[in-house]
Amino acid sequence: MLKLFKYLKPFSQSVALVLVLVFFQSLADLYLPTLMSDIVDTGIVKGDTSYILRVGAFMLLVAAVSGLCLISASFLSAKVATGLGRNLRSLVFARVESYSQHEFDKLGTASLITRTTNDITQVQQVLIIMMRMMVGAPMMSIGGIIMAVSKDATLSLIFVVVLPVLAVVIFGIAGKGIPLFKAMQVKLDTLNRVLREGLTGIRVIRAFNRIDHEKERFTESNRDLTNTAIKVNIIMASLMPVMMVVMNLTTIAIVWFGGIRVNNGDIQVGDMMAFLQYAMQIMFSLVMVSFMFIMIPRAEASAMRINEVLDMIPEIKDAEEIKNPDSQRGFVEFKDVTFSYPGAEQPALKDVSFTASPGEVTALIGGTGSGKSTLINLIPRFYDIDSGSIFVDGVDVRKMSQANLRAKIGFVPQKAVLFTGTIAENIRYGKEDATDKEVEHVARIAQAIEFITSMTDGFNSVIAQGGANISGGQKQRLAIARALVRRPEIYVFDDTFSALDFKTDAQLRAALKKETADATVIIVAQRVSTVMNANRVIVMDDGRIVGMGTHRELLTTCEVYREIVSSQFSEEELA
Predict the structure, then answer these.
(1) Is residue 99 scored above 70 in pLDDT?
(2) I want to staple 25 with a disulfide (CB 3.0 to 4.6 A). Which of 69, 77, 309, 540 is the partner?
(3) Is residue 482 domain-shared with residue 494, that is, in the same domain?
């Protein structure tokens, strides 16, 4: 957790002020019992009303200072903690945004959500407690012991018995509770994952009538987390009753033995009352210290998870010396590229080589799992290759900055992803300063203008989260429009025509041909009708290129391509 303290630097002055305020509050609280004993032993015994009023007024002033310091310290500590939480969430989010797909797969989306929300909240809460107690509690405990001994050293021997008992209780309960706090965070990850899968996959769950099964999965995860939470709370709840029993027994002992010493004339009544107050301050401060011992390990578990996110260095990062293309625009070249997913036994791509040039359409086709989507995910450098080279505009993508590389590419993923907002905002995601005219133009090319204008608010119609209120084909067309508005050098379409009917598909490809005439177009497709007019068709099988050429050339030279064509066309259509 100490590693996270470096992020407190912007709040250093506020932290210092909180510690000073807590220090003065503790001094005031330690001084009050002494003033009270003076009133009892001097003012009341002597019957000096003016002395009582004078010291009493001073007590009120000290109490007011203590209250003011407490309120100010509470306000500033809350402000510092929430500020740190805000900064940590921003840092975690920014770091996660820089991750490659490998880091996402390693940590998991559900865990990243928990770390960004619940774990940072735990650190916030503990920071508030620490700032208010890490000075106050030890000072009250040590100061109370000193003041109690100054009042009566003999009566202070009670603490020799009480303090070891309290220490055993605190460390015993903390030793049982801390491992359970750590386990709760892992179980919270699991609950988040099950909940997220249940919400995102609701259509599949209903289609296969697996609602009861998913309820059982959620109930099991929820029960597991609940049982652990109940167990740890029962353990922690036992701390306060035990502490109260010890404190009450201590009070009885102080009154009993103190009464004997008052009767013998060894101490005054006021001193015994002050001693009792100091004893309560000592034990309450020990309770506060015990809470710190319990809460800090819980926050430490959360801090370790946050640090794991912040310390994880993305595998894909910009080179120390960035190279920029000279004059070429839109040239893509794969040269003996081999790529394996982390932990995979076999490469997903093996010795892949081809060139895609501006003004040409390069199409990728092949069976499921042949490596088509993997190949195009390497162009924007979502993953780094094992061997070989990928060149964009004559420069190895590993030597280009990621921002410059991706600015050259209009990428339409296999699964169309839309964000909550209007249709116009989703299209402008590709180009923030796109005019209304540009937005309408690309929507028309993407064959989306018809369904957009039929909606109540047109381009201002709101898209629900994930595009849940429009069809799959409509989502694909908006994703295509988003890429088109960017007017990039390279267009990459990853099976983005699969949800379109043949008529819309043909109209869209015809419109795209004019719009992308000067750009490099790379299309992944399952339909032969989508790729048959491409300048170059690349046939993939088991991660390798098994055929390359035009549609007609491949019909005579590539057996895999002929099988794909024959599975989609009849003999008459082939003839």
Answers:
(1) yes
(2) 69
(3) no
Whole-prediction pTM value?
Answer: 0.71
Residue 132: closest CA among 213, 76, 48: 76
Tell me the per-residue pLDDT of 334-352, one tens digit each, with 9 for 90 and over. 999 999 987 778 899 999 9
485: helix, coil or strand?
coil
Residue 539 bridge partners (DSSP): 365, 547
Strand order in 520-524's β-sheet?
Answer: 409-412, 490-494, 520-524, 361-366, 536-541, 544-549
Strands 536-541 and 544-549: antiparallel
Last residue of a domain, one of 259, 276, 311: 311
- Please report, as a single letter, which amino acid is at residue 167: A
**DSSP 8-state assignment for residue 11:** G
Query: Which SS3 state, helix, strand or coil, does residue 524 take?
Result: strand
User: Which domain range does residue 364 map to?
Assistant: 328-408+489-575
H or E element that contains 17: helix 12-38
Coil vs helix vs strand at 411: strand
User: Could you tell me how many residues make up the chain?
Assistant: 575
Q: Are residues 190 and 245 in the same domain?
A: yes
Which amino acid is residue 451, in one-letter code?
Answer: F
Q: What is the pLDDT of residues 23-79, one digit of tens each?
A: 888 888 888 888 777 777 666 666 677 877 888 888 899 889 989 998 999 899 999
Out of 259, 282, 311, pick the residue that ends a domain: 311
pLDDT at 222: 92
Element (H, E) at 88: helix 49-97
Give the tens place of pLDDT for each residue, 102-141.
788 778 777 888 888 888 988 888 888 888 877 788 888 8
